[in-house]
Amino acid sequence: MLPTAVHRPAPPGIRRRALLVTLFVVYLALLTWLVMWKLHDPFIGRADMRSIKLVPFLPGDGFGASDPLEILGNVAVFVPFGVYLRLLRPDWRVARIALLAGALSLAFEVAQYVTAVGSSDVTDVIANTAGAILGFVVLAGMRRHGRGGAMLTASLAAATVIALVAAVAVVAGRPSLPAPGDGGAGHIVD
User: Fold this and answer.
1) What are the tens digits of pLDDT across the range 22-57?
2) In this predicted model, what pLDDT tens digit does every residue of 160-179 receive, in sequence order?
3) Domain ranges, ordered by start, for the chain
4) Could you tell me how far CA 1 lies from the centroid of its own chain?
5) pTM here?
6) How far apart are CA 179 and CA 189, in angstroms?
7) Residue ranges of the VanZ-like domain (predicted)?
8) How far apart are CA 18 and CA 168, in angstroms?
9) CB-based contact 82:136 (threshold 8 Å)
10) CA dist 166 to 98, 144, 163, 181, Å?
11) What is the model's pLDDT at position 186?
């Protein structure tokens, strides 16, 4: 008689890591949609939509000064990047997180320029990197004082799920447009 396989649940540490990796991937997908298309349907722009602002924060070359609320928004959306990486790779130093966040942000800015979907701005790279560093440092400080861990993972999971539900609501709440040749009956735009 052949022995039967016994299903043993994965240890809690492995389940927690798998959950974090899954949530991080969802966060990165939402972040890409937010940064590239501002939660609109993905599209490729026109050449006249391309612009590059190389002087951070200040007005110049036909650009105004950077909007403080936009800067804060850029910092805020990258805080989870630093938190997730700190949870997934606690052995990494802040310099590595800064390098990865800066590289991801620069990739977003280059992609925005190539696809002509937004203004490529050095301020965004700086603010996004600062947000990731902030997330990493805050979590490191919490851990140093005995906080974080399971409660933070649960909070991060809840925030990611709320963001995902909000994104679905944005898509579902879009106005329906008449399909070509259907006489005005609406459908959700893909």
Assistant:
1) 999 999 999 999 999 988 888 888 888 888 998 999
2) 888 888 877 877 776 654 44
3) 14-35+74-167
4) 53
5) 0.80
6) 9
7) 24-139
8) 23
9) yes
10) 28, 33, 5, 32
11) 40
